[in-house]
Specification:
Layout (H helix, E strand, L loop, with lengths): L3 E4 L5 H10 L3 E5 L9 H8 L7 E5 L5 H11 L3 E5 L13 E7 L10 E5 L11 H7 L4 E4 L8 H8 L3 E4 L4 E3 L2 E2 L1 H15 L3
Parallel strand pairs: 1-2, 1-8, 2-3, 3-4, 4-5, 5-6, 6-7, 7-8
Antiparallel strand pairs: 9-10
Helix pairs in contact: 1-6, 2-3, 5-6
């Protein structure tokens, strides 16, 4: 099984293209309070040319169902990513994958499917305890997030052996502004480390 690499918090077409060209499997668009927040119609426009095998991820945080339905209708994502406890209040079609977010120190990951594992706050570059994450990663399909960059992602992959990795702030030249060079470096490092799995 190949490692899933997700680039999150995209807001410019050139950065979407950079992520896809570098070999990303998933591209994330943030519809929550953040410097990376993007309007659903803008996200739809810049993700429109993404090949079918690239997962377009709607990243939310405690959305109301009306807010989610707007994102669903306008952006038409492949995946909804939000905190695990949010899904009970949301109407999610079966055609949309659900990637619940479980946070370090919170509720244990209770899923055999794909999920995100990260620190207490998203998009802050907070690393989790990789040794503890490695134990959790033996069940379900963990996408490890938080504090990963081109310098440490190989060690993280070797230690945790996750299903995937997710990055946002470490591939930016300024908060919210992605850097194609850093995107390429991160994905290259992750792909090189993948060979040791």
């Amino acid at each position: 099984m190949s490692l899933v690499v997700k680039i999150c918090g995209l807001s410019e077409a050139e950065h979407v293209h950079a992520a896809i060209d570098a070999g990303a499997d998933a591209i994330g668009f943030v519809f929550a309070d953040s410097v990376r927040r993007i309007a659903p119609d803008r996200a739809a426009a810049i993700a429109a040319e993404a090949p079918a095998h690239i997962k377009r991820v709607a990243v939310m945080l405690h959305p109301g169902n009306d807010e989610w339905q707007q994102v669903l209708q306008v952006f038409r994502p492949d995946v909804l990513q939000t905190d695990a406890g949010d899904f009970a209040a949301l109407e999610v079609p079966e055609s949309i994958q659900q990637w619940p977010v479980f946070r370090e120190g919170g509720t244990a990951a209770a899923t055999t499917g794909c999920y995100i594992y990260e620190g207490a706050k998203s998009g802050q570059g907070q690393s989790v305890d990789w040794s503890a994450a490695a134990v959790l990663a033996t069940g379900g399909r963990m996408i490890l997030a938080g504090g990963l960059d081109a310098q440490n992602v190989a060690e993280a992959i070797a230690t945790v052996r996750p299903f995937g990795v997710d990055v946002s702030s470490a591939v930016e030249s300024a908060p919210g502004l992605k850097d194609p060079r850093l995107i390429r470096k991160f994905i290259g490092a992750a792909r090189a480390a993948e060979k040791s799995l």
